[in-house]
Write a structure and sequence with these properties.
4-stranded antiparallel beta sheet, binds magnesium ion, 6-stranded mixed beta sheet, 247 residues, single chain, alpha/beta, Rossmann fold, binds adenosine-5'-diphosphate
């Protein structure tokens, strides 16, 4: 299988504090990977470091995406190359509608001007797939949205921007079962042999609907164990404590 992402011995810090302590992770096209772990383990840090959030400093190691070393690249260049990240806590953007937000993002990423009418049509179809009230297209991004609506909006962005690598940071936290189902169906519709998904979570809700190829346990800035979907059950039975001595 073709390699899409290779994180090679990455150490990263925030405000001089080392959070990631040598991460190795390879994701091939067509794969779904899950990173699970305790609160504060560094899961969101890993997502941000792959995306290139400048608040985090990579002090060692490298990140290769689609054959190119992107370790020093800016977040917008990574987005153009096909990396997308959904936020654990999506912010609201007063004054910008959902439609304009996503269209602007798409224009920026593709470097083309998508035609307004064609875009409207695509947006409407994707919203319907997600059971996302289409009137929300004209509302300000996340303003007054419920937790479930914010997550649907993230999945909507993903499905329209069509990245090569989608990183979903705790897309399932705080969602009811219906919203989790809609989100995981959205991920399944998006996922194909040419792209890859990295799901970060600390509970197993969303994993009942998605078939990951690999599950990684992240504790104290290190991947302490990698396995298949059976690892999710193992964590459920043993708890994270069982892995702490591996960190
Ligand atoms: P997780 O997503 O696994 O819960 P995070 O990656 O968010 O963990 O956080 C890892 C560690 O980094 C935590 O100790 C957290 O307090 C710290 N941290 C994360 N973001 C910041 C920040 N912006 N400023 C200071 N410390 C941070
Ligand atoms: Mg987090």
């Amino acid at each position: 299988m073709a390699e899409l992402l290779r994180v090679d011995n990455v150490r990263a810090s925030i405000e001089e504090k080392e959070i990631l302590k040598g991460i190795n992770l390879t994701i091939n096209k067509g794969e779904i990977h899950v990173v699970m772990g305790t609160n504060g383990a560094g899961k969101s840090t890993l997502a941000n470091v792959i995306m290139g959030n400048p608040a985090y400093e990579v002090t060692e190691g490298s990140i290769v995406f689609d054959g190119e070393n992107i370790t020093e690249e800016a977040v917008n260049d990574r987005a153009k190359k096909g990396i997308f990240m959904s936020f654990q806590h999506p912010i609201s953007v007063p004054g910008i509608t959902v439609e304009n937000f996503i269209r602007t993002a798409k224009n920026t990423i593709t470097g083309e001007n998508v035609r307004a009418l064609a875009f409207k049509k695509e947006l409407k179809a994707k919203m319907e797939e997600l059971s996302f009230d289409t009137s929300y297209a004209n509302r300000y991004v996340n303003e007054g949205f419920s937790g479930g609506e914010r997550k649907k909006n993230e999945i909507l962005q993903m499905s329209i921007l069509n990245p090569k690598l989608a990183i979903l940071d705790e897309t399932d936290s705080g969602l009811d079962v219906d919203a989790v189902r809609i989100v995981s169906e959205g991920v399944n519709r998006f996922h194909n042999e040419e792209n890859a998904v990295l799901i970060i979570t600390h509970h197993n809700q969303i994993l009942q609907k998605l078939q990951p190829n690999y599950v990684h346990i992240l504790i104290d800035g290190r991947i302490v164990k990698t396995g298949g979907p059976e690892l999710v059950r193992e964590i459920e039975e043993k708890g994270y404590d069982a892995y702490k001595n591996l960190a």
